[in-house]
Amino acid sequence: MAVLKLYRQKLQHNYNHLNKVFKEHDISWGIVTKLLCGHELYLKEVLALGLKEVHDSRVTNLKTIKTMAPDVQTVYIKPAPKKSIPDIIQYADVSFQTELDIINMLSEEAVRQDKLHKIIIMIEMGDLREGVMGEELVDFYEKVFELPGISVIGLGANFNCLHGVMPTQDKLIQLCLYKQIIEAKFNREIPWVSGGTSVTIPLLFNHILPKGVNHFRVGEALFFGLNLFTNETFEGMQDDVFELETEIIELTEKPMVPSGILAENPSGESFEIDESLYGKKSHRAIIDVGLLDINPKFLIPKDDNISVIGASSDMLVVELGVNSDNYKVGDVLRFNLRYMGALSVLNSRYINKEVV
């Protein structure tokens, strides 16, 4: 069976690197754990890093975190479904919100549970996923400020999540101006401007992050060290906190061109014949993961001589060329992962999880 490994020292290294930078700039931050899909083995490693704020998009994961570490501040990071409101109040200290009706329900539930629930109101900044429109923000805040059991601790925004809109200095200045408008209008302090995610970190490293942005939520940069502007690894960070180990279950020299009438495969893909490959052969290996576990485009072979050809539901085919490394059936092939690939693997119950 394939195995996903998390390397403890590499995770600690990336955490130390980020924590040092955030401390130097007086920025609060939390770790986004939704990638880990609630796996206690990996959550334990994250909680051991020492940070006291954890973000997730699943209430069940926050419940697990609260059970493991009651003193950690838990943050629910998407608009709340009605049916989840009692659990959100119970297991999330903070939540991101965009709908007045939902915030009213959170208020009622917070009063019932005798709790003060903190919220960050998300603002639409161009990516067109969640967020209150800027022109509606003052009226929105005016209604929220009146609610019992609710404390507004920040405003925030997401970038690059749907349409790929990137954060810029101008957009983040605008986010900070919204905070100033709300504070001046209502004579209320808004402690956090949560404009930072992994995609915003390059602005911090390049010294162009507006000083008003004082809170980050970080997952991808911590686990993959990835600069989302350049798709390169940040200097001083590790890109292989996670590693997928797979086993070769077939290895045969085969023609490089399929034979027969071609139609769409079960994934809806159609292939065209490359006539220059007629008569040529190559060693192909099948490994013990498939589309049920991961999309091949999110796999990065650690051996540069290997290329991923494609996959069916539970098997994946890789090209070995002349097989200069003399791989054989039963040998292990290792892969780094992109974020969405790791998310799929972590959500697969068919792949073992280990800590190294």
Automatic annotation (TrEMBL):
Cofactor(s) this protein cannot do without: pyridoxal 5'-phosphate
GO molecular function term, any single one: pyridoxal phosphate binding
Pfam families: Ala_racemase_N (PF01168)
InterPro entries (alphabetical): Ala_racemase, Ala_racemase_N, PLP-binding_barrel
Source organism, top-level taxon: Bacteria
Recorded GO CC terms: cytosol
Keywords, in A-Z order: Isomerase, Pyridoxal phosphate
SUPFAM superfamilies recorded: PLP-binding barrel (SSF51419)
Domain (Alanine racemase N-terminal) ranges: 9-225
The name this protein goes by in its record: Amino acid racemase
Annotated source species: Pontibacter korlensis
